[in-house]
Amino acid sequence: MIEKKTPAELKQMARQVLRGNYGICAGSLVLIGIAVMMICFMGEIPVAITMALSGSAGGFGMAVVASSGFMIFIIVIGLLEYIVMIGYMRLCYNICTGGERNLGDLFFGFNHHLWKFVRLGLLFIVLPQVLNIPVTFLRIVGAAAARHFVFLSVFSIIMTILQVVVSMYLLLNFSMAAMILVENPEKGLMDSLKESSQIMKGNKGRMFWLWLTFLGVVLLGYGSCGIGFIWIMPYMTCTHVFFYFDITDRAVVEQKKDVEWDGVQM
User: Are 55 and 25 in contact (CB under 8 A)?
Assistant: First the structure.
């Protein structure tokens, strides 16, 4: 049985392959950020007009239309970001495997079975909202029923904890579905979800711990007003790719052994 790598070893492999590739990774993220901001700006105009009309016209119907339009806008933006990040994952996958990499990889999700990635994105975007329905309902009822406010508040907290646990379990269970489709876009969506569930058996704890080890750099990224994520995102994504290789016992392209990173011999 092949010995599994530690988070430190996976991170070291990611740092190694990123040497000389940070330029294209950083440039890709900047382009993604500009594109998303432009889409958000253009999309906010009709949403703002609809909400303004609903406010001036009044009425419950217009308010529902405005709220629905805003929610659809949020979901569409989330899907676009998700599909573009699929392309970014493909770029990092090519870097990790020593394959050809270019900015065209960013359109991988749009050019390879787009609706398959749309459905996968909807799963991760809509599922947390569905799980949040009972908690939202309890909060509304608790606000209306003053006599049972304490009981409903406690129950709401318990349901929130359960929601977080279930959401995290499902996220970990299907976390490799996108990676599987990036590697083999011809595979069916349900097949990728089943395969992800299978290979993550016994590896959910390792994945969760790997996420926790990035907490420090993520906080630094937020502390730098998001600028630090230009370097952090490639680091995290390549580590994610190597974790996928590790749990599937995949051979990795042999890298140079004499590369140094931050003074550490690799």
Answer: no
